[in-house]
DNA sequence: TGGCCAATACTG
DNA sequence: CAGTAT
DNA sequence: GCCA
């Protein structure tokens, strides 16, 4: 079921509603709001008049089951619905009857913990341990905790750490990366691997699960290595949030450019599907400021 | 009717 | 490749 | 889902 855009649309409508200063009291008021159309305004009107939405009464426990299945790491809507179609309704059904993939087993094992948000202080503590380990391997490694943490949120869904190294001496961060992962595993900080990455690429990513020694809960952690000259593009992309990223990339697209986690490119021609046909020319990647300027966006 | 709040890396 | 993830 |  591809309700991706419907979901996004509802989210947009919700945030538009939250922005309203006065309560909405009618269909006419609701439909004036940008992002709320006929269908949503109808639903709002029904809630105003009757106090609830009939449609929601039909929202059954079945939907809850599919939702819960897809909350397992490694299980998306397709697999969740497949399991449902086979008649499975509980985690126990799944464990008994399904040949789970390695990551799905981990997702299930850590299910409860991974649903919890992580207090900011704990993210700080975990980041510090990663940074110390990295520094012992190579003092010039630079670790930056990005994601919601760098945006100053009081809690985070996971821990995202970007690792880079000033490469003017010819070395990069990709070499020490595997060593760092091994060190963190030996320390017991990393408890489960969700990705087994291939070779030592210039840029590589690790997804896993960690737990502070004496800590209460398993936490999702992502580690990325980034070439030093791409740091700006990487920061922009991993700082988010998602909506901000997408809007920046859409802006780039409208200007016949392309923005990704490696950099900003110009002179892009795109096919019908929106995929770029030409490589384009790299015009900015080293700092966020460069990219903002090249896109014509006021800096912060 | 079709684009939108993207583009890309792993897994099996 | 489709699916899932960021 | 919304919008052009």
TrEMBL record:
Location of the DNA-directed DNA polymerase X domain: 1-300
GO cellular component entries: nucleus
Predominant subcellular localization, coarse grouping: nucleus
Record field: catalytic activity: DNA(n) + a 2'-deoxyribonucleoside 5'-triphosphate = DNA(n+1) + diphosphate
Subcellular location field: Nucleus
UniProt-listed Enzyme Commission number(s): 2.7.7.7
Gene3D superfamilies referenced in this protein's UniProt entry, alphabetically: 5' to 3' exonuclease, C-terminal subdomain, Beta Polymerase, domain 2, DNA polymerase beta, N-terminal domain-like, DNA polymerase, thumb domain
SMART domains the record matches: POLXc
Enzyme class: transferase
GO biological process: double-strand break repair via nonhomologous end joining
Family the entry assigns: Belongs to the DNA polymerase type-X family.
Function, in words: DNA polymerase that functions in several pathways of DNA repair. Involved in base excision repair (BER) responsible for repair of lesions that give rise to abasic (AP) sites in DNA. Also contributes to DNA double-strand break repair by non-homologous end joining and homologous recombination. Has both template-dependent and template-independent (terminal transferase) DNA polymerase activities. Has also a 5'-deoxyribose-5-phosphate lyase (dRP lyase) activity.
Protein name (Swiss-Prot/TrEMBL): DNA polymerase
Species of the source: Gigaspora rosea
């Amino acid at each position: 079921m591809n309700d991706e855009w419907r979901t996004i649309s509802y989210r947009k409508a919700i945030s538009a509603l939250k922005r309203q200063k006065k309560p909405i009291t009618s269909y006419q008021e609701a439909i004036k709001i940008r992002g709320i159309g006929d269908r949503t305004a109808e639903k709002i009107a029904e809630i105003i008049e009757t106090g609830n939405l009939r449609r929601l009464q039909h929202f059954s426990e079945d939907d809850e089951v599919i939702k819960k299945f897809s909350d397992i790491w490694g299980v998306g809507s397709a697999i969740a619905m497949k399991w449902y179609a086979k008649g499975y309704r509980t985690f126990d059904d799944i464990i008994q009857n399904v040949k789970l993939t390695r990551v799905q087993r981990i997702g299930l094992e850590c299910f409860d913990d991974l649903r919890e948000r992580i207090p900011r202080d704990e993210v700080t503590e975990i980041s510090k341990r990663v940074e110390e380990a990295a520094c012992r391997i190579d003092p010039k490694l630079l670790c930056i905790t990005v994601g919601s943490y760098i945006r100053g949120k009081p809690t985070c869904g996971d821990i995202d750490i970007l690792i880079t190294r000033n490469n003017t001496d010819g070395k990069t961060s990709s070499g020490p990366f595997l060593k760092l992962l091994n060190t963190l595993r030996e320390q017991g900080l990393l408890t489960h691997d969700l990705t087994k990455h291939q070779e030592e690429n210039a840029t590589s990513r690790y997804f896993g699960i960690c737990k502070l020694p004496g800590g209460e809960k398993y936490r999702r952690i992502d580690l990325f290595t980034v070439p030093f000259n791409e740091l700006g593009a990487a920061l922009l992309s991993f700082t988010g949030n998602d909506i901000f990223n997408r809007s920046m990339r859409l802006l780039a697209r409208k200007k016949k450019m392309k923005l990704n986690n490696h950099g900003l490119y110009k002179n892009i021609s795109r096919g019908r599907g929106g995929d770029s046909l030409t490589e384009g020319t790299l015009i900015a990647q080293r700092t966020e400021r460069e990219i903002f300027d090249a896109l014509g966006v006021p800096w912060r």
